[in-house]
Design goal:
mainly alpha, 1 helix, 2 domains, 2 strands, two-stranded antiparallel sheet, rod-shaped
């Protein structure tokens, strides 16, 4: 995995993310190693959209709401 240093901008290659903390090879600053993905946001969007769609439009609304919620939540990222 490649991680960009927030201090100097150089790209560092990390072999094992579980071993922390990693330092930048150029400036020595700590590297951010947490991976943020949209997987959880997609699941939350799917469930929330389906629940809202079911409340408004019944079974058909649940399907449409779930699909739209998953699409909107796919690119969502939580965190800092």
């Amino acid at each position: 995995m490649e991680v960009q240093c927030k201090k100097c901008g150089s790209v560092n290659r990390i072999q094992n993310v579980s071993q922390q903390p990693y330092r930048c090879g150029k400036c020595g600053a700590f590297l951010p190693t947490s991976q943020q993905s949209g997987d959880t946001s997609q699941a939350v969007g799917l469930i929330g959209g389906a629940a809202l769609g079911a409340a408004i439009g019944g079974p058909v609304g649940a399907i449409v709401g779930g699909v739209l919620g998953a699409i909107l939540g796919k690119e969502g990222k939580g965190g800092s």
